[in-house]
Amino acid sequence: MGARGEKMFTRSDGELAVRIARAQIEKKLGKKDVIIPRETEIFLEGSGVFVTLNTYPDRELRGCIGYPEPIMALGKAIADVAVSAALRDPRFPAVGLREMESIVIDVTLLTPPEKIRYRDEEDLIRQIRIGRDGLIAKRSFFSGLLLPQVPVEYKWTVEEFLSHTCLKAGLRPEEWRRGDVEFQKFQGKVYGEESPGGPVREIPLS
After folding, report:
1. Cβ atoms < 10 Å from Cβ of 72
2. Helix 74-87 crosses helix 11-28 at what angle (to 10 degrees)?
3. Residue 82 within any structural domain of the chain
4. Which of 96, 134, 165, 183 has the smallest set of CB atoms within 10 Å of its CB?
């Protein structure tokens, strides 16, 4: 099963991904007569993906689960993480069917993560671009991931992005300066509903 690069995803792919995510959640929650959209060929290929639920209209986070690695076919991965984001995110109570009327869904389609090889902290900083890259920090059994849109939303510098990724991994924020944290970067395209069940647009990252 091959993995797709982010440049190969089109706007129609993104719209279909969001429609599949909503349909899978609503079907799981017991909505009657839900039709799961038919997948196109690209959804049979492996891809990393995250599904994010936000409240509407204030867009507060309500759930986010995903696979950074292309471990299964995209269509199956979307179905899995969409339901998990709604029901199994440990930070939030499970979403109810009525609540879906006030939730918007974003889907982030990812490229496979690649290890950043760096000599020192300046070299690491040079290899990361806000608005393009997501990050994974790893050391021993600790691991944490932040999607490309997160530093854009919070207006972080690269240094702040690295610190917060360390925090997400359960490390101290300054740990990235020591040179013993492994970092991987990946890119993504984000597609989201403008209103619950409404039109889908590509969300710019910069």
Report:
1. 17
2. 50
3. yes
4. 96
Considering the domain architecture, whether residues 199 and 102 belong to the same structural domain is answered as yes
- Is the pLDDT score of 115 beyond 70? yes
Residues 177-191: pLDDT tens digits?
999 999 999 999 999
Answer yes or no: are the C-beta atoms of 81 and 110 closer than 8 Å.
no
Report how far residue 162's alpha carbon sits from residue 145's, in angstroms, rounded to the nearest whole number.
10
Q: Are residues 121 and 88 in the same domain?
A: no
User: Two tokens at 152?
Assistant: 């854009």
Residue 163 belongs to domain with CATH number: 3.30.1490.150
> According to the model, what pLDDT value does residue 108 have?
96
Element (H, E) at 124: helix 121-126
Give the residue numbers spanning the domain of 73.
6-111+188-203
Please report, for the chain, how many H helices and E strands are present, in that order: 5, 8
The contacts of residue 123 (CB under 8 Å, 6+ apart) are none
Residue 36 CA neighbour count, 13 Å, CB half: 12
Could you tell me the CATH number of the domain that includes residue 100?
A: 3.30.700.20
Q: Is 55 exposed, middle or buried (0-12, 13-18, 19+ CB in 10 A)?
A: middle
Q: What is the pLDDT of residues 134-180, one digit of tens each?
A: 999 999 999 999 999 999 999 999 999 999 999 999 999 999 999 99
pLDDT in tens, 64-107: 999 999 999 999 999 999 999 999 999 999 999 999 999 999 99
Return the ∠ at Cα 22 (arms to 17 and 25), rounded to 5°: 125
